[in-house]
Amino acid sequence: MSSDPSRIVVLKGRSLYGGLRLFCDQAADAFRRAGHEVEVLDIAPLERPDLRLVEHAASAGPFDLVFTINIAGEFRDPAGRTLGELYGGRHVIWHTDYILGQYDRLRKTPQSTSVLVVDPTQADAVRSIYGEDRFQSVSFFPHPAVGHPAEDDADVDAFLERRPIGILWSGSFQKPQCPWANLQPASRSVFEEALDLALSVEWMAPHEALDAVLRSRGLDFGSPAATGAREAAYLIDMEVRTTRRLAFVEAVGRTGLPVTICGLGWESELGRFSNATYEGAVDMARMAELMSRSRVVLNTNGNFGAGSHERPFSASLAGAAIFSDYSSYYAEVFEPGRSIELFRWKALDDGMAALAALAGDPGRCLDYARIAKRETLARHTWDHRIALIFAAAGLSGAPSPQGGRGPRN
What's the N-to-C CA distance of the chain in angstroms? Predict the structure, then answer.
């Protein structure tokens, strides 16, 4: 492969809190710093983005690489061309949500596409359900930090003065919905058993929990019906994530610790907290600024027990200490007990005691933040992650990937 500069187009779509749009901008900046020619095409405000894509490709193409986040995997132009064919290059799509929740789009995404996921077990699920050769590649792509490095706090006094927010929590309020409530009893029992299995252990990949139950019921995984049944693991992910997030919210509320909350849906839930400040829904750029004024940033990793969320890396870049549920990836790239505090779902009360101890010790928070920030700047920015995008596309043109596990192709 040539190491000459590549022409890259980044498609920018809609985003609830502006996070995906910020990701696109920071990815484009990282590509440019690496010497590549980049165009960012914002299709969010367009009524017919498909027509704009055809027009743009005809006038500005060809491009070596098309990078999208969550969008356009299923794209076809009126002539039936895929996004990669339209632009004359490789298409790499990063899915930041649970991958099987995008099953309809996945089915329509062409084989030539390289798919990136935020937990390596999601790559395992895609290979197991759709086949090893269903896509050009399926790789683990951990979140990079977003925002800009905060100025270092010289000492504990400076840390406290600059950071009036003791504990920061961001994210929409969510609670279980039981999405299978209207199914037939036999089907409901499959989902209930899989959910019970997933919640009975510290963490189990959703597709593994559902597969175990389906296998015990005698499902032939080689039959055409098996694909749809196994894709429904996204429902297990949804219920585990919301069940545990609600348990976390309730546990933090019981501590009585002062916490600043950002996100949608909290207006009727603040009574759970005796000492809460509610910022409302804020975009990710504002969230990065709030992190730079916080001592401890909370994270729940969804149901990605081997993967990532952007909060820990962004919080460390902002100079805050991180308190998160356990992920084997965080245990690998941070130093638990030294640069990150990790709690276990099966020992949530112990975790809350650890949170109280960390929040009450600003010197320790500062130590955690300094170490984590150094690690993030060294390995977990967009400048480091673009190497994984090039590797997934089979292109050269970026430094060697860093940051723990590389692509799993």
Answer: 18
Q: What is the pTM of this model?
A: 0.95
Cα–Cα nearest to 194, from 178, 177, 176, 213: 213
CATH code where residue 46 lies: 3.40.50.2000
Note whether 297 and 164 are same-domain residues: yes
- Residue 336: CB atoms within 10 A of its CB come to 13
> Which SS3 state, helix, strand or coil, does residue 403 take?
coil
In a domain, 409, yes or no: no
User: Which tokens hold the place of 384?
Assistant: 């480091």
User: What is the CA angle 75-21-409, rounded to 5?
Assistant: 60
The C-alpha angle with vertex 101 and arms to 95 and 103, in degrees rounded to 5, equals 90
Query: How would you write the pLDDT of the chain (409 residues) with one tens digit per residue?
Result: 346 899 999 999 999 899 999 999 999 999 999 999 999 999 999 999 999 999 999 999 999 999 999 999 999 999 999 999 999 999 999 999 999 999 999 999 999 999 999 999 999 999 999 999 999 999 999 999 999 999 999 999 999 999 999 999 999 999 999 999 999 999 999 999 999 999 999 999 999 999 999 999 999 999 989 999 999 999 999 999 999 999 999 999 999 999 999 999 999 999 999 999 999 999 999 999 999 999 999 999 989 999 999 999 999 999 999 999 999 999 999 999 999 999 999 999 999 999 999 999 999 999 999 999 999 999 999 999 999 999 999 998 655 555 444 433 3
